[in-house]
Each structure stands twice: as structure tokens, then as C-alpha cells.
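Q: Could you predict the 3D structure of Mannose-6-phosphate isomerase?
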Amino acid sequence: MDRLFPLHGEVMCYDWGVKGTHSMVARLAQQGSNVDVDPERPYAELWMGTHVTAPSKCPSHPTPTTTLRDVLRNQPSLLSNPTSSNSNTQAEEFPDFHLPFLFKVLSIGNALSIQAHPDKELARRLHATRPDLYRDDNHKPEMAVALSEFEALCGFKPLAEIADTVEKVPELGDLIGTRVMERLRRASGGHLATDDGSKMLNGHRPNEVENHQREALRTVFATLMQCAPATVSERLSACVTRLTGEGKNVESYPRGTPEELFLRLDRQFPGGDVGCFGALLLNYVRLQPGEALFLGANEPHAYLSGDCIECMASSDNVVRAGLTPKLKDVPVLVQMLTYNAHAASEQILAGTPISAKTTLYAPPIPEFSVLRTELDPGDHDVNPGVSGPSIILVTEGDVELSYLCEDSTTTVVEGKLGSIFYLAPEATLELRCKPTSRTIVYRAFYDSRGGLETSKI
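A: Sure. Here are the predicted C-alpha cells for Mannose-6-phosphate isomerase:
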């Protein structure tokens, strides 16, 4: 098989997705893989990779149901440098011929659950004790790159902002309690400078301050999430009544404010979901196309609306605690979180331009990076070869892809909206936009060398 070949991703339909061709996932699958789209089904995710839950297929193979993993098992050279003979390294990097990353597109109509993903150590423990819930032993750091305007919750707000939110939503304060809130307020302020220039809070050094703040935040979150369901329902009802008095509704409040967010989530998850309050402790961010979020292990988050590219370590481990009818593993989530608190602006990644046309998103983990190439009609750009495998997705327009291998052979393929390709290592890739309209191409890749040599671009 060639070292650049087409794939068909697998479509996943969940209740939080977007119906019919209003969903970008549906449009990509329809155009790229000839999927029949039901206008009444919510198309939520497009999976690209080797994950056992929904492995990609290879339509150019004599048997179209052949999975990408089957092809890689039969031709291991597609996973590594064709001149390399180090099979031990390949076995370590790609156990059982799996890619180290999972590439997705998400179309979100209703909010996803408040969740976090375990680190490797916790993932191993959870899988060993609850394999029915946690089906693999890998961590799941992930990155989202906005394809449209995209709303999300990510990480805890700074403590002072949480205290301000409680002032705006007093029913939240009722659930947390006066003593716990007072502890949070004390932890959030009172910094003094010492003679040696270090910072103190009530006589404590910076690391003691941070630990004190984390423990105060942990107490707030745990107290809220462990409230009796009947009490949560009563306070939710009271909050809705107050916010919708005098003829007001969710549209009466600016989008993303605590009041608007609370009413929106209550409308999506009626019946007393504590996540409607829990969401108010997290940073609200609104991304524009091309902006990104990196979500490390043990950090709380929830996607709210819009379309995004998502790339993650190859795992499906999720610990949930709100905004979901699924199992809420509150004790595990409360225990696992880092309780770091940062401003919303610190959560957004702009990416690094590595050419006039291509942006690199390189999170601080080895499993994956992502390239975004945007070309105007007639433009072209060149991406260097990397030491590991890549998956390429066309999200807009028509493009000609050509690659030059080390043996100087060249292959050219045509890509359109929804086209997906696998690219083997060490192939230099040229992207050329057709003259009719601009094109946008995303490429997820693994590079054992630790990153692109940008001077080659």
C-alpha cells in the first residue's frame, strides 16, 4: 500500500450532537465518506485513528472494511521510518500497532458533562478496579482547536472570581455554606511582601499559600458536588425563579455570564443537575476559529457549543460529575483534580506560526501535535516529514496533496471537504489549493524526535 492513502472515519451519534447536516460532523462524513445523513439524528463525533471503539477503515484496500490497524499490522513500515530496522522502538511507541493519538471532529449542540481525564497512574488503578467504567489504562490529555465559534468551560476560576460569582448567584452560596465560603475568601486575598521579596499570606510562604488555596477550593467543590440531591433541586428551582422574574428569560442576560450560563444549562439538564451550579466555578471561554485549548490530566472542563477539532492520547477514560444522565463518579473526581486556578485568558492557545500558511499546536506531551494549514486559491505550502504517523483531514475547500519520499518518488492525491488520509513517516508533504476557493487542512501527528524542525518549512 502507498504511504499516503485515504481513510473513512467513524461517526458517533450522541444526544448532545447536532442534528442532520446542521452538524459539521455530518457534512464532513457525507462529503468525505458518502455517509447517509438522517436529518433527525444528532451527529456528535467523527473518530479518526485505531481506537478499538471506532477504528478507521481503509476504502482503497481490496477489502473496504479493513481497518487502519489491520493495515499497520500487516505493513509495520507504515508506522516508522522506512530505513529504520529498530523493531523494539516501534513496539514500544506503537503497542499492538495502535497510534498514540486519537483524532476527532466534534459538533456540539448541548453541553457535554463536567469531566476530567485521569493521569497514567490513576488510569491504571481505575482500569484495574473498575474495568466496566474505565476501559483502558491510559491517560487522556486532549486539545481542542475551534472550527467555528466554540464555547467551553476549562479549569477553575481564580478564587476571587469564584467569590464574586457567589455574590451574583446566592443560591450557589447557600449550597456551599457560609463557613466554607469565608475560608475561600480568606485564601483568595491578603498577600503581603516580605523583606526578601517573597510573598506571604497570613505569614505563609508561596508554596504554603498555593496549598492553602487549593485546599480551600477543593473544599468548595467537594461540598457543592456532595450536596443532597433534594437540596440541590430546591436551590436550583429558587435560582430559576429569581432569574426569570419580571418576565426575564435566558436571553435577557449577556451570553456567558453566570446568570445566562446557569439558565441555559438548567434548560438542557432539567430536574436538578448539580452541574448547573458546578459550571459556575469554572472559566468560561469563547474561542474563535483557529484558537485552541489544551486540557491536561486531572483538570475539569466541559464543552458547551460549536465545532472543534480534538486530538488526544488514545484513551476513552472519562470521570464525570455533572451535566449528564450518565454515572457521576463524584468521589473519584473530587479526589483527582489538581485544583489549579487560573484566569480564562491563560487557558487559550493561539498556536505558533511556522510558515505564512501553517500553524503548529504543540501541547506539552509526547503523544501528538497538530498542524493547521490555510491556503487561499492557488496558494501552496510544504510540511516537512516527521518521524511518526500522521492523519490528515480537509475541513474546507479542495486541495492537491503530494508527497516526496526519501527514494525521490512522488505521489499526488486529490482532497475535498471531509477527505481523510493516513500519511506514513518521513514523507515531505506539499499542499496546493485549487483555484476555486480557499482550503483548510488539519494534520495530527506523532513525532518521536519531540517536535517539528520548523527551519525546514
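Q: Anything worth pointing out?
A: The first strand starts at residue 4 and ends at 7.
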